[in-house]
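In this section we walk through a basic example: taking a raw amino acid sequence and producing a predicted 3D structure, encoded as C-alpha coordinates. The instruction is simple. Fold the sequence below.
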Amino acid sequence: MKVAFIGMMNLLDRFSGAALSARSFIETLAAAGHDCRSYTTSSFDTSAHVSLTVAIGPGAEDNKHQGKLITLTKSGVRHDLFVTSHTDRQKVTAKEWQKFAGIGISWIKENPADIYITYGNNSFTKILQSTARMSGAKIVFYLGNAAYQHRDNIEPCDVVVCPSLFLANYYEKKLGLSTQVLRTIIPESRFLSKEQNIYRQHPEHRKQGFVTFFNPQFSKGLGLVVQLVIQAQKFAPDMRFLIVSGRTDHRAVAINGMALSDYPNVWCIDSQEDVKSIYQRTSVLLLPSVVQEAASRSIVEAQLSGIPVIASSRGGNKERLNGGGSCLDLPPSYISNPQSVPELEEIKPWLEQLMCLWDNKDTYSNACQRAINASQAFRPEAVSKLSVDFFEQLIEDSKT
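The resulting C-alpha coordinate sequence is shown next.
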Protein backbone atom coordinates (compact mmCIF):
# COMPACT_ATOMS: atom_id res chain seq x y z
CA MET A 1 0.00 0.00 0.00
CA LYS A 2 1.28 3.47 -0.93
CA VAL A 3 0.36 6.39 1.33
CA ALA A 4 1.26 10.04 0.85
CA PHE A 5 0.67 13.21 2.82
CA ILE A 6 0.09 16.41 0.84
CA GLY A 7 -0.18 19.89 2.32
CA MET A 8 1.34 23.33 2.65
CA MET A 9 2.75 22.98 6.15
CA ASN A 10 5.93 21.12 7.02
CA LEU A 11 5.14 17.68 8.41
CA LEU A 12 8.27 17.85 10.59
CA ASP A 13 6.82 20.87 12.40
CA ARG A 14 6.94 20.26 16.17
CA PHE A 15 4.85 23.40 16.82
CA SER A 16 1.79 21.94 15.09
CA GLY A 17 -0.34 19.26 16.72
CA ALA A 18 -1.93 18.47 13.35
CA ALA A 19 1.50 17.94 11.76
CA LEU A 20 2.63 15.73 14.63
CA SER A 21 -0.54 13.64 14.35
CA ALA A 22 -0.47 13.27 10.55
CA ARG A 23 3.23 12.45 10.68
CA SER A 24 2.59 9.76 13.30
CA PHE A 25 0.08 8.11 10.95
CA ILE A 26 2.48 7.79 8.04
CA GLU A 27 5.45 6.83 10.23
CA THR A 28 3.33 4.09 11.81
CA LEU A 29 2.24 2.87 8.37
CA ALA A 30 5.87 2.92 7.20
CA ALA A 31 6.86 0.83 10.22
CA ALA A 32 4.13 -1.64 9.20
CA GLY A 33 5.82 -2.09 5.82
CA HIS A 34 3.93 0.38 3.65
CA ASP A 35 5.46 2.87 1.19
CA CYS A 36 5.00 6.33 2.74
CA ARG A 37 6.06 9.79 1.62
CA SER A 38 5.03 13.44 1.83
CA TYR A 39 4.98 16.61 -0.24
CA THR A 40 5.03 19.78 1.87
CA THR A 41 7.07 22.98 2.31
CA SER A 42 9.68 24.41 4.65
CA SER A 43 7.14 26.70 6.35
CA PHE A 44 6.08 26.17 9.95
CA ASP A 45 3.10 27.02 12.14
CA THR A 46 4.94 29.67 14.16
CA SER A 47 6.04 33.27 13.66
CA ALA A 48 9.37 32.52 15.37
CA HIS A 49 12.34 31.76 13.16
CA VAL A 50 12.95 28.04 12.73
CA SER A 51 16.42 26.73 11.97
CA LEU A 52 16.07 24.50 8.92
CA THR A 53 19.44 23.00 9.78
CA VAL A 54 17.98 21.77 13.08
CA ALA A 55 14.51 20.88 11.78
CA ILE A 56 15.53 19.30 8.48
CA GLY A 57 19.29 18.82 8.28
CA PRO A 58 22.68 20.33 7.37
CA GLY A 59 22.66 22.60 4.35
CA ALA A 60 18.88 23.08 4.29
CA GLU A 61 19.19 26.83 4.90
CA ASP A 62 21.37 27.38 1.84
CA ASN A 63 19.68 29.96 -0.42
CA LYS A 64 20.36 27.80 -3.46
CA HIS A 65 17.48 25.51 -2.38
CA GLN A 66 14.79 28.24 -2.42
CA GLY A 67 12.01 27.45 -4.87
CA LYS A 68 13.24 23.88 -5.28
CA LEU A 69 12.65 20.50 -3.67
CA ILE A 70 14.92 18.93 -1.11
CA THR A 71 14.43 15.32 -0.07
CA LEU A 72 15.13 13.59 3.21
CA THR A 73 14.04 10.37 4.86
CA LYS A 74 13.01 10.18 8.51
CA SER A 75 11.55 7.17 10.31
CA GLY A 76 11.08 5.34 7.02
CA VAL A 77 9.16 8.18 5.35
CA ARG A 78 10.48 10.11 2.35
CA HIS A 79 9.78 13.82 2.66
CA ASP A 80 9.92 16.08 -0.41
CA LEU A 81 9.93 19.70 0.73
CA PHE A 82 9.44 22.78 -1.41
CA VAL A 83 11.81 25.32 0.13
CA THR A 84 10.19 28.70 0.78
CA SER A 85 11.89 32.05 1.43
CA HIS A 86 10.61 32.15 5.01
CA THR A 87 9.82 29.52 7.64
CA ASP A 88 6.88 31.70 8.75
CA ARG A 89 4.03 30.80 6.38
CA GLN A 90 2.58 34.32 6.68
CA LYS A 91 5.68 35.73 4.96
CA VAL A 92 5.69 33.30 2.03
CA THR A 93 4.66 35.07 -1.19
CA ALA A 94 1.70 34.14 -3.38
CA LYS A 95 4.12 33.53 -6.24
CA GLU A 96 5.92 30.93 -4.13
CA TRP A 97 2.66 29.20 -3.22
CA GLN A 98 1.69 29.10 -6.91
CA LYS A 99 4.99 27.44 -7.75
CA PHE A 100 4.52 25.01 -4.85
CA ALA A 101 1.09 24.02 -6.22
CA GLY A 102 2.41 23.63 -9.77
CA ILE A 103 5.25 21.36 -8.69
CA GLY A 104 2.78 19.54 -6.45
CA ILE A 105 0.55 18.60 -9.39
CA SER A 106 3.53 16.98 -11.09
CA TRP A 107 4.64 15.36 -7.83
CA ILE A 108 1.27 13.65 -7.38
CA LYS A 109 1.35 12.33 -10.96
CA GLU A 110 4.89 11.04 -10.44
CA ASN A 111 4.16 9.58 -7.00
CA PRO A 112 0.78 7.85 -7.33
CA ALA A 113 -0.59 6.64 -4.01
CA ASP A 114 -3.48 4.50 -2.86
CA ILE A 115 -4.25 6.94 -0.05
CA TYR A 116 -3.53 10.65 0.31
CA ILE A 117 -3.74 12.12 3.82
CA THR A 118 -4.26 15.88 3.96
CA TYR A 119 -5.57 18.82 5.95
CA GLY A 120 -5.99 22.57 5.48
CA ASN A 121 -8.28 24.57 3.20
CA ASN A 122 -5.98 27.12 1.58
CA SER A 123 -6.66 27.46 -2.14
CA PHE A 124 -3.23 26.06 -3.03
CA THR A 125 -3.74 23.02 -0.78
CA LYS A 126 -7.13 22.55 -2.44
CA ILE A 127 -5.39 22.30 -5.83
CA LEU A 128 -3.31 19.40 -4.55
CA GLN A 129 -6.33 17.73 -2.95
CA SER A 130 -8.33 17.96 -6.20
CA THR A 131 -5.42 16.58 -8.22
CA ALA A 132 -5.04 13.65 -5.83
CA ARG A 133 -8.75 12.93 -5.96
CA MET A 134 -8.76 12.87 -9.77
CA SER A 135 -6.09 10.17 -9.63
CA GLY A 136 -8.66 7.77 -8.20
CA ALA A 137 -6.93 7.46 -4.83
CA LYS A 138 -8.69 7.55 -1.46
CA ILE A 139 -8.56 10.98 0.21
CA VAL A 140 -8.39 11.03 4.03
CA PHE A 141 -8.90 14.48 5.54
CA TYR A 142 -7.42 14.91 9.02
CA LEU A 143 -9.60 17.22 11.12
CA GLY A 144 -7.43 18.23 14.07
CA ASN A 145 -9.19 21.28 15.52
CA ALA A 146 -12.56 22.99 15.89
CA ALA A 147 -11.76 25.84 13.49
CA TYR A 148 -13.45 24.67 10.27
CA GLN A 149 -16.64 26.60 9.59
CA HIS A 150 -18.08 25.01 6.43
CA ARG A 151 -18.28 21.53 4.92
CA ASP A 152 -16.76 22.74 1.67
CA ASN A 153 -13.58 23.56 3.63
CA ILE A 154 -13.22 19.80 4.11
CA GLU A 155 -14.93 18.15 1.15
CA PRO A 156 -14.62 16.46 -1.24
CA CYS A 157 -12.90 13.56 0.48
CA ASP A 158 -13.62 9.89 1.14
CA VAL A 159 -13.12 9.81 4.89
CA VAL A 160 -12.76 12.44 7.58
CA VAL A 161 -10.59 11.41 10.53
CA CYS A 162 -10.45 13.23 13.86
CA PRO A 163 -8.62 12.49 17.14
CA SER A 164 -11.41 12.62 19.73
CA LEU A 165 -15.07 11.88 20.35
CA PHE A 166 -15.48 15.49 21.44
CA LEU A 167 -14.42 16.71 17.99
CA ALA A 168 -16.51 14.07 16.20
CA ASN A 169 -19.63 15.13 18.13
CA TYR A 170 -18.78 18.81 17.63
CA TYR A 171 -18.67 18.51 13.83
CA GLU A 172 -21.68 16.23 13.65
CA LYS A 173 -23.73 18.94 15.40
CA LYS A 174 -22.11 21.90 13.64
CA LEU A 175 -21.79 20.64 10.07
CA GLY A 176 -23.65 17.32 10.00
CA LEU A 177 -20.30 15.69 9.32
CA SER A 178 -19.61 11.99 9.85
CA THR A 179 -16.09 11.29 11.07
CA GLN A 180 -13.90 8.36 12.05
CA VAL A 181 -12.17 8.73 15.42
CA LEU A 182 -8.51 7.66 15.45
CA ARG A 183 -6.71 8.51 18.65
CA THR A 184 -3.44 10.39 18.44
CA ILE A 185 -0.42 8.11 18.24
CA ILE A 186 2.14 9.18 20.83
CA PRO A 187 5.52 7.56 20.07
CA GLU A 188 7.69 6.34 22.93
CA SER A 189 10.16 9.11 22.12
CA ARG A 190 7.67 11.61 23.59
CA PHE A 191 7.02 10.17 27.04
CA LEU A 192 8.99 8.85 30.00
CA SER A 193 9.44 5.30 31.15
CA LYS A 194 8.99 4.58 34.85
CA GLU A 195 12.76 4.61 35.33
CA GLN A 196 13.06 8.02 33.67
CA ASN A 197 10.49 9.71 35.94
CA ILE A 198 12.36 10.47 39.16
CA TYR A 199 9.39 12.09 40.88
CA ARG A 200 7.10 9.13 40.21
CA GLN A 201 9.70 6.77 41.69
CA HIS A 202 10.57 9.12 44.54
CA PRO A 203 7.57 11.39 45.24
CA GLU A 204 9.43 12.89 48.19
CA HIS A 205 11.57 14.70 45.59
CA ARG A 206 8.60 16.17 43.68
CA LYS A 207 9.39 19.70 44.88
CA GLN A 208 12.64 19.58 42.94
CA GLY A 209 10.60 19.53 39.74
CA PHE A 210 8.62 22.22 37.94
CA VAL A 211 4.96 23.02 37.48
CA THR A 212 5.06 23.13 33.68
CA PHE A 213 2.97 25.11 31.21
CA PHE A 214 3.37 24.80 27.42
CA ASN A 215 2.72 27.51 24.83
CA PRO A 216 2.23 30.82 26.71
CA GLN A 217 -0.87 32.11 24.95
CA PHE A 218 -3.84 33.79 26.59
CA SER A 219 -6.13 31.32 24.83
CA LYS A 220 -4.20 28.51 26.52
CA GLY A 221 -4.85 29.92 30.00
CA LEU A 222 -1.79 32.11 30.51
CA GLY A 223 -3.67 34.59 32.73
CA LEU A 224 -4.72 31.82 35.12
CA VAL A 225 -1.15 30.49 35.26
CA VAL A 226 0.15 33.96 36.13
CA GLN A 227 -2.30 34.17 39.04
CA LEU A 228 -1.06 30.79 40.28
CA VAL A 229 2.52 32.07 39.95
CA ILE A 230 1.66 35.12 42.07
CA GLN A 231 -0.12 33.07 44.74
CA ALA A 232 2.66 30.47 44.87
CA GLN A 233 5.06 33.21 45.96
CA LYS A 234 2.94 33.52 49.12
CA PHE A 235 1.79 29.95 49.79
CA ALA A 236 4.57 27.82 48.25
CA PRO A 237 7.82 29.78 47.95
CA ASP A 238 9.61 26.58 46.94
CA MET A 239 7.33 26.05 43.92
CA ARG A 240 8.87 26.84 40.52
CA PHE A 241 7.06 27.20 37.23
CA LEU A 242 8.48 26.25 33.83
CA ILE A 243 6.97 28.07 30.83
CA VAL A 244 7.85 26.53 27.47
CA SER A 245 7.53 28.51 24.26
CA GLY A 246 5.45 27.01 21.48
CA ARG A 247 3.72 28.87 18.67
CA THR A 248 4.15 31.90 20.94
CA ASP A 249 7.61 32.89 22.15
CA HIS A 250 7.68 33.61 25.88
CA ARG A 251 9.71 36.77 25.13
CA ALA A 252 6.78 38.20 23.16
CA VAL A 253 4.40 38.12 26.13
CA ALA A 254 3.97 40.61 28.96
CA ILE A 255 1.31 40.78 31.67
CA ASN A 256 0.78 43.88 33.81
CA GLY A 257 3.95 45.31 32.32
CA MET A 258 6.07 42.33 33.37
CA ALA A 259 7.80 39.81 31.14
CA LEU A 260 7.14 36.23 32.17
CA SER A 261 10.81 35.78 33.04
CA ASP A 262 10.58 38.72 35.48
CA TYR A 263 8.62 36.63 37.96
CA PRO A 264 11.17 35.23 40.43
CA ASN A 265 9.60 31.76 40.55
CA VAL A 266 9.30 31.36 36.77
CA TRP A 267 11.79 29.80 34.39
CA CYS A 268 11.22 30.28 30.64
CA ILE A 269 12.71 28.15 27.88
CA ASP A 270 12.35 27.80 24.14
CA SER A 271 10.55 24.89 22.53
CA GLN A 272 12.64 21.73 22.74
CA GLU A 273 13.17 19.09 20.07
CA ASP A 274 13.37 16.49 22.86
CA VAL A 275 10.14 16.95 24.84
CA LYS A 276 11.17 14.16 27.22
CA SER A 277 13.84 16.45 28.63
CA ILE A 278 11.02 18.76 29.76
CA TYR A 279 8.93 15.98 31.27
CA GLN A 280 11.96 14.73 33.20
CA ARG A 281 11.93 18.02 35.11
CA THR A 282 8.14 18.24 35.45
CA SER A 283 6.27 17.37 38.65
CA VAL A 284 2.84 18.70 37.55
CA LEU A 285 1.50 19.74 34.15
CA LEU A 286 -0.96 22.64 33.88
CA LEU A 287 -3.36 22.86 30.94
CA PRO A 288 -5.93 25.56 31.76
CA SER A 289 -7.01 26.09 28.14
CA VAL A 290 -9.77 28.58 27.44
CA VAL A 291 -10.15 27.38 23.86
CA GLN A 292 -12.05 24.20 23.12
CA GLU A 293 -9.11 21.80 23.00
CA ALA A 294 -9.70 19.15 20.36
CA ALA A 295 -7.36 16.48 21.70
CA SER A 296 -4.43 17.65 23.79
CA ARG A 297 -1.24 15.73 23.07
CA SER A 298 0.38 17.14 26.22
CA ILE A 299 -2.20 15.50 28.48
CA VAL A 300 -1.55 12.08 26.98
CA GLU A 301 2.24 12.50 26.94
CA ALA A 302 2.27 13.61 30.56
CA GLN A 303 -0.01 10.81 31.79
CA LEU A 304 1.93 8.18 29.86
CA SER A 305 4.94 9.59 31.73
CA GLY A 306 3.15 9.27 35.09
CA ILE A 307 2.89 13.04 35.58
CA PRO A 308 -0.25 14.45 37.30
CA VAL A 309 -2.21 16.87 35.10
CA ILE A 310 -4.51 19.68 36.11
CA ALA A 311 -6.58 20.71 33.08
CA SER A 312 -9.63 22.79 32.26
CA SER A 313 -12.90 21.09 31.36
CA ARG A 314 -12.88 22.73 27.93
CA GLY A 315 -13.32 20.69 24.75
CA GLY A 316 -11.85 17.20 24.77
CA ASN A 317 -9.70 17.57 27.89
CA LYS A 318 -11.91 15.39 30.09
CA GLU A 319 -11.89 12.67 27.44
CA ARG A 320 -8.10 12.90 27.24
CA LEU A 321 -7.67 12.75 31.02
CA ASN A 322 -9.79 9.60 31.06
CA GLY A 323 -10.23 9.84 34.83
CA GLY A 324 -6.51 10.21 35.46
CA GLY A 325 -6.08 13.87 36.35
CA SER A 326 -7.96 16.84 37.73
CA CYS A 327 -10.50 18.39 35.37
CA LEU A 328 -11.55 21.82 36.67
CA ASP A 329 -13.97 24.44 35.38
CA LEU A 330 -12.85 27.92 34.41
CA PRO A 331 -14.66 31.03 35.73
CA PRO A 332 -17.23 32.25 33.15
CA SER A 333 -15.83 35.78 33.39
CA TYR A 334 -12.38 34.46 32.50
CA ILE A 335 -13.68 32.47 29.52
CA SER A 336 -15.26 35.64 28.15
CA ASN A 337 -12.07 37.64 28.76
CA PRO A 338 -9.09 35.29 28.48
CA GLN A 339 -6.56 38.14 28.25
CA SER A 340 -7.28 39.02 31.86
CA VAL A 341 -5.71 37.64 35.02
CA PRO A 342 -8.57 36.08 37.01
CA GLU A 343 -9.00 36.97 40.67
CA LEU A 344 -7.78 34.59 43.36
CA GLU A 345 -11.33 33.74 44.47
CA GLU A 346 -12.19 32.69 40.93
CA ILE A 347 -9.37 30.18 40.61
CA LYS A 348 -9.20 28.90 44.19
CA PRO A 349 -9.98 25.27 43.16
CA TRP A 350 -6.93 25.38 40.89
CA LEU A 351 -4.65 26.67 43.62
CA GLU A 352 -6.03 24.19 46.15
CA GLN A 353 -5.51 21.22 43.81
CA LEU A 354 -1.99 22.33 42.98
CA MET A 355 -1.12 22.86 46.66
CA CYS A 356 -2.54 19.44 47.54
CA LEU A 357 -0.20 17.74 45.08
CA TRP A 358 2.69 19.90 46.22
CA ASP A 359 2.24 19.46 49.98
CA ASN A 360 1.15 15.81 50.29
CA LYS A 361 3.51 13.07 49.15
CA ASP A 362 0.87 10.33 49.26
CA THR A 363 -1.61 12.43 47.28
CA TYR A 364 1.08 13.08 44.68
CA SER A 365 2.08 9.41 44.47
CA ASN A 366 -1.55 8.34 44.03
CA ALA A 367 -1.99 10.97 41.30
CA CYS A 368 1.03 9.58 39.44
CA GLN A 369 -0.47 6.10 39.50
CA ARG A 370 -3.90 7.36 38.37
CA ALA A 371 -2.17 9.07 35.44
CA ILE A 372 -0.51 5.81 34.40
CA ASN A 373 -3.74 3.83 34.76
CA ALA A 374 -5.71 6.33 32.69
CA SER A 375 -3.07 6.45 29.96
CA GLN A 376 -3.17 2.74 29.11
CA ALA A 377 -5.89 3.27 26.50
CA PHE A 378 -3.48 5.64 24.72
CA ARG A 379 -0.45 3.33 24.69
CA PRO A 380 1.21 3.63 21.25
CA GLU A 381 1.17 -0.10 20.50
CA ALA A 382 -2.63 -0.27 20.91
CA VAL A 383 -3.41 2.98 19.09
CA SER A 384 -0.96 2.21 16.27
CA LYS A 385 -2.61 -1.12 15.53
CA LEU A 386 -6.04 0.51 15.29
CA SER A 387 -4.68 3.10 12.86
CA VAL A 388 -2.91 0.58 10.63
CA ASP A 389 -6.02 -1.63 10.58
CA PHE A 390 -8.15 1.36 9.60
CA PHE A 391 -6.01 2.39 6.61
CA GLU A 392 -5.53 -1.17 5.38
CA GLN A 393 -9.26 -1.82 5.63
CA LEU A 394 -9.96 1.36 3.67
CA ILE A 395 -8.04 -0.07 0.73
CA GLU A 396 -9.61 -3.54 1.09
CA ASP A 397 -13.08 -2.02 1.05
CA SER A 398 -12.28 -0.11 -2.13
CA LYS A 399 -11.55 -3.40 -3.92
CA THR A 400 -15.03 -4.81 -3.28
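Looking at the output, two observations stand out. The radius of gyration is 22 Å. The mean pLDDT is 93. In the next section we compare this with other chains.
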